[in-house]
Automatic annotation (TrEMBL):
The keyword Kinase applies. Residues 36-254 form the Histidine kinase domain. It catalyses: ATP + protein L-histidine = ADP + protein N-phospho-L-histidine. One of its GO terms (molecular function) is double-stranded DNA binding. Its EC number is 2.7.13.3. One of its GO terms (cellular component) is plasma membrane. Keywords: Kinase, Membrane, Phosphoprotein, Transferase, Two-component regulatory system. This is histidine kinase. One of its GO terms (biological process) is cellular response to phosphate starvation. It is an enzyme of class 2 (transferase). It comes from the Bacteria.
């Protein structure tokens, strides 16, 4: 507690007791975040500088070594770029926190669109994605670009952490007044003790593995902020050795007369 005392002109004394706990926790989180982000950027940067220095020595005269070093430098620079892009996304979403998104978004069309993007990306796992979309779903009030990013992060994780050649199932249907989206993989799963911390910035179950497959550690933090901005709910259920299902519920804009979840198309 912080105590502030003020004397009024009429001779009264006013004492303010201010709860510092919430303020201190937010400040600590901010300091940790800046420290973590700087550390994440420093590592690839140091590696790039080291390679530039070596290329300046005799090693740089060997064409094969030069090509190998350039490849490593390119990968490290791409890693920094991904991280900076995720940091920018996170700060934009946070800045918009209190502005409710209002565009009507057809989620089934968006899921289909993102799925096509994965198919076109040439990823070897793209063919494993299966979509099941209920018909005649109502739109939601949303931010299409952010919802697309949410889908990319969730499907991307399912592909990264699911085992090769196992299916990734994307489902969209209705659950009362909400639309329910789920992304399920058959992969290594996540131990229950990690689940509550997964949406923290830079929290990873296995840091080495996440980095080596191109993860920034910010994907689920971004998803959480997008879901919150859309007044939705995020749930992560997982079983070690079996797989993970992430479910997002988002409030539908209006209720159509007929029950939409009764009919569905499977792709
Ligand atoms: P990253 O960029 O490391 O993938 P995320 O914020 O997207 O960061 O996820 C945080 C961590 O949660 C990951 O490092 C990984 O350990 C774990 N994780 C996320 N999605 C899955 C999944 N589908 N299966 C297993 N582990 C997952």
């Amino acid at each position: 507690w912080e105590m502030r005392v003020a004397d009024t002109t009429s001779g009264q004394r006013i004492v303010h007791l201010i709860d510092q706990t919430a303020h201190d926790a937010a400040e600590r989180m901010r300091v940790d975040f800046v420290a973590n982000a700087s550390h994440e950027l420093r590592t690839p940067l140091a590696s790039i500088l080291g390679f530039i220095e070596t290329l300046g020595d005799e090693a740089g005269e060997d064409a094969e070594i030069r090509a190998r070093f350039l490849k490593v430098m390119f990968d490290e620079a791409r890693r920094m770029q991904r991280l900076v892009e995720d940091l920018i996304s996170l700060s934009r979403i946070e800045a918009d926190k209190y502005r409710q998104p209002a565009q009507p978004v057809d989620m089934a069309e968006l899921v289909d669109h993102v799925w096509e993007e994965f198919l076109d990306s040439g990823s070897p796992r793209a063919d494993d994605i299966g979509c099941e979309l209920a018909e005649d779903l109502p739109p939601i009030a949303g931010d299409r670009a952010q919802l697309s990013q949410m889908l990319h992060n969730l499907i991307g994780n399912a592909m990264k952490y699911g085992k090769a050649e196992t299916p990734v199932r994307v489902r969209l249907d209705r659950d009362g007044p909400m639309l329910r989206l789920s992304v399920a993989d058959r992969g290594e799963g996540i131990a229950a003790s990690h689940l509550p911390r997964l949406t923290e910035r830079f929290y990873r179950v296995d840091s080495g593995r996440s980095r080596s497959i191109g993860g920034t550690g910010l994907g689920l933090a971004i998803v959480k902020h997008i879901v919150e901005r859309h007044r939705g709910k995020l749930e992560i259920a997982s079983e070690v050795g079996v797989g993970t299902t992430v479910t997002v519920r988002l409030p539908a804009l209006k209720t159509p007369e007929k029950n939409a979840s009764e009919s569905s198309v499977t792709k």
